């Protein structure tokens, strides 16, 4: 994937509509919104305590679109002022499906290139967006291809009404986002299994993409099990 990023925006829930409206003007037409709660109480003290109900917005952007959006965030929403919010981007490595890619990047003049890779990484974060209530179907498909587990977040999608144009189907606004950390070498088969068993031809209507993971902690035992399995000689043929 060439110059494509996941844009994450964190702001006060009451301010979220201003961010979404600005993004839509900048051709960022599809977003997933989840609710959160602020915990930081230093620096501006009571101001942040009184504005602790947060929204987290996830979008897909190209590099040029992000640069334009960042300038407008600063000039129009004054995002650099304390308490307004924060936005950051993370490079993406792949999106499963050409139609899904077109849906997520409509209007951004994105040309698909080679998959991006980050040197020295051996894991990827898979993010699966599916209709709410079908996480079991998604996880069954992922486990069938070697995934071990995932984390579920409830979200609401914006721009879902455009799905029929690109995907030939309608999508519900209420969404599940499932996060799975996988080995890079196993990423493709897990994504393919999800697309086959829980993709657009299933009730889950899943879209899946991946982000490179620079480093991990807490997966040592899983790493050791995988190393032992890889070193184990194959069973003799009957």
Helix-strand blueprint:
Elements: E1 4-12, H1 16-25, E2 31-37, H2 46-49, E3 53-62, H3 63-75, E4 85-91, E5 94-95, H4 98-104, E6 123-131, H5 135-144, E7 151-158, H6 163-167, E8 174-183, H7 184-198, E9 207-213, H8 220-231
Antiparallel strand pairs: 1-3, 1-4, 2-3, 2-7, 5-9, 6-8, 6-9, 7-8
Task: Characterise the protein shown here.
By secondary structure, this protein is α+β, with helices and mostly antiparallel strands. The protein has 2 domains: 4-91, Alpha-Beta Plaits (2-Layer Sandwich); 94-216, Alpha-Beta Plaits (2-Layer Sandwich). It is 32% helix and 29% strand. It is built from 8 helices and 9 strands. It has helices spanning 16-25, 46-49, 63-75, 98-104, 135-144, 163-167, 184-198, 220-231; strands at residues 4-12, 31-37, 53-62, 85-91, 94-95, 123-131, 151-158, 174-183, 207-213. It is globular.
Cross-sheet strand order for the largest sheet: 4-1-3-2-7-8-6-9-5
CATH topology of the largest domain: Alpha-Beta Plaits
Number of domains: 2
Helix content: 25-40%
CATH class of the largest domain: Alpha Beta
Distance between the termini: 43 Å
The low-confidence parts are 44-50
Got a strand count? 9
By CATH, the architecture of the largest domain is named 2-Layer Sandwich
Secondary-structure class: alpha+beta
Number of helices: 8
The largest sheet, given as strand count, sense and whether it forms a barrel, is: 9 strands, antiparallel
